[in-house]
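It is worth pausing here to work through a concrete case rather than discussing structure prediction in the abstract. The textbook approach is simple: state the sequence, then state the predicted structure, then interpret. We follow exactly that order.
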Amino acid sequence: MPTALSRPATAPLIGVAFMLGAMALLPFLDVFAKFLGQQGVPVLQIVWARLFVGALIALPFALPHQGAKGLIPDRPGYHSFRAGFLILATFCFFLSLKYLPIADALAIFFVQPLVVTVLSALVLKEAVPRNRWAAVAVGFVGTLIIIRPGFVALNPGSLLALAAGSFLAIYFVMTRHISGRAPAMVTTFQTNMIGAAALSLAMPLVWHTPSLEQWLMFAGLGVIATFGHYLIVRAYDYSEASLLAPLAYTEMVVATAVGWYFFGDFPDALTFLGVAVLIACALYITLTERNRATPDAIEQP
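Step two, the predicted structure:
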């Protein structure tokens, strides 16, 4: 039975840097997914491609760590459960877009950092300082300023988007729970492999024969998803879940930029205000953690 790796020493700023890198990269995943969806590729096949190609990409990076035996999770049930939450989150969010405008779906989906903070306190027993609760709340306000949703009536899309955000929050908390048990790229491969294997069973029912251009976009999905989630795994190796949760809002900054560049969605004045709030939230968390870390660093031998 594989022995657990020692968890890296807590280094909040390193975790923050990894998380910010992931949030800068992952919006490009949505660009490929949106292009594929516009071309008639089924949502389930897009999710499968993300995981299948991701597994192929992660394999050569994961093998050198522990060999072929190390690719098998030491807790298969737990890893399968965790991969299931990632699949559900991705599928529910894209399905919610059939019922809701993207802005409304994103507003509900970004309940995720709030759920992560709550679960990190209840499940992981992390002590959540007041400044982190405040940062989560302020970040959520910034997101609402950007997307200005119209919460008029609850419909299936609202429930699906809420489920997607909650499922992703559970995935993140489960990621933190197993951090340090295996190298990050090994964990990334295992998640992709389990998810792709499960979804492959459904592919004969929904298969859309991709064009060359679509295969290339599938490859882009795999590259971005693999290295984006690798960065997230590394972030949770070094930092507490409740610290990283507010930084998820910075994804909206890059998402706003790529939405304007690829789809012509030019931000208005309120959007820029919301982006400024998100940047201020991330900077506040980073500076606060640096100040907290300084005394400990001085005491190190």
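Step three, interpretation. Residues 16-293 form one domain. Residues 50 and 221 are 5 Å apart (CA to CA).
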